[in-house]
Amino acid sequence: MTNRPIFNGRSAISYGRFIAVAAAASLAIAACSSEKPKAEASAEAMPANVLVSKAECDRNKAAGTITYISGYGYSASAGQLDVFLAKELGYFDALCLTVDINAAGGNGQQLVSSGQAQFTALGSASDVMLAAANSRNLTAVATYGSTSPFSIFANEDVKSLKDLEGRKLGYFINITPIALAMLDAAGVDVSKVELVKMTNYDPTVVTRGQVDAIVGYASNQPQTLKAMGLPFSEFLPGDLGLQGTYNVMEVNSEFLSKHREAAADFMRASLKALDLCLADEPKCVDMISKLAEDNNQGSAFPKDQQARTWGVESAWVRASAFGPPGVQTADEWKNEYEMVQKFGGLKNPPPLESMMDTELVASLYKDGKLIWPEKK
To answer: How far is CA 143 from CA 12, 125, 312, 333, 371, in A?
Structure first.
């Protein structure tokens, strides 16, 4: 026989109340238990703008802040304008990348090599090779064109490069190897040319005869002279059968090794912006010019100049012999590899393949189109 407790009236009421409270508590607990998965799911739900999985998002966040150094401010150039606009358009955010941009970093290679920054863009493969002589912590991951950006523009009375013998040829910082290769191909005795280091970027010094010619950027000073309607002569590497490269993106080698997927997504977002800038040049020129103005660099990068620059450089990207934008191969770098040894004074350079990664950007394309995640 089972013993059952005996309750008086008050005890019965208390017991009834206990049962009611306990039942209510049980219902509350059950309700909380049934709602908890929803709360957890809500907490784990990815923001609406994010296009990657949680695992991919966590992976990219783990890479920390990625610092990009723009070597030439807000210039409308591949490897620069696309990075600015990828940030502005939220493409980095969509891949869970935290990107900081330094638009005043003239020493980008040193900062990236030392690990104080992760990415920077250079003018050509020659620049990468010359930098590699002093650092083993830089890896080129993208080349944006197979056209050298350099030209020699001259006073209109200079009809051939041979005419520079006995005259003044200006250059900025250092005379690029491809310019010396041009002079060599034209049969110029360089010992008879007075080389002048320039600090004044005004291209009219050539038309006014202060110097007879300058090694410059084909998309910049010569385009300014054309816009001003001033007569001048211009000589391009291609005129002499010389192939070069246009703009190269470099990454800190240690960062690339530790965070390869995040580095790939940085390039993916940048190339997504580059696609837009190739499809809608005016829109991108407007955006980069406004960014320059908003950051007190508007006078250095006026909209009309930006339009001229991107009008030329976008054509170089489209005409790349390497493949889709950013794709690079060792074979197409070989010409400049030989140039920097012969004309750049680079003795016993590192092996070409050790300076570059030819797979990272190539893997971002399928059938020539950039792979971009879609919202699921």
So the answer is: 86, 8, 16, 10, 18
CA angle 66, 70, 72 (to 5 degrees): 180
Establish how many alpha carbons lie within 13 A of residue 234's alpha carbon, considering only the half-sphere containing its beta carbon: 20
Amino acid at site 333: W
Cα–Cα distance, 168 to 376 (Å, whole number): 62
Does residue 109 contact residue 296 with C-beta atoms inside 8 Å? no
Residue-by-residue pLDDT tens, the chain, 376 positions: 434 333 333 333 333 433 343 444 443 444 444 444 443 444 466 788 999 999 999 999 999 999 999 988 999 999 999 999 999 999 999 999 999 999 986 788 889 999 999 999 999 999 889 887 777 799 999 999 999 999 999 999 999 999 999 999 999 988 999 999 999 999 999 999 999 999 988 999 999 999 999 999 999 999 999 999 999 999 999 999 999 999 999 999 999 999 999 999 999 999 999 999 999 999 999 999 999 999 999 999 999 999 999 999 999 999 999 999 999 999 989 999 999 999 998 888 888 999 999 999 999 999 999 999 987 6
Which pTM was predicted?
A: 0.85
Rg (the chain; Cα; Å):
30
Give the rounded distance of the alpha carbon of 27 from its chain centre.
58
Assign 13 to helix, strand or coil: helix
The pair of structure tokens assigned to 109 is 């290679």
Q: Please state, in angstroms and rounded to a whole number, the distance separating the CA atoms of residues 208 and 205.
A: 5
Q: How far apart are CA 376 and CA 374, in angstroms?
A: 6
SS3 221: helix
Strands 194-198 and 168-172 turn out to be parallel
Residue 252: strand pairing partners:
138
Closest CA to 278 of 211, 324, 328: 324
Q: How many CA atoms lie within 13 A of 146 on its CB side?
A: 19
Kindly provide the residue ranges of all beta strands, DSSP E only, lying in the chain, ordered along the sequence.
65-69, 98-102, 119-122, 138-145, 150-154, 168-172, 194-198, 213-217, 233-235, 246-252, 365-366, 369-370
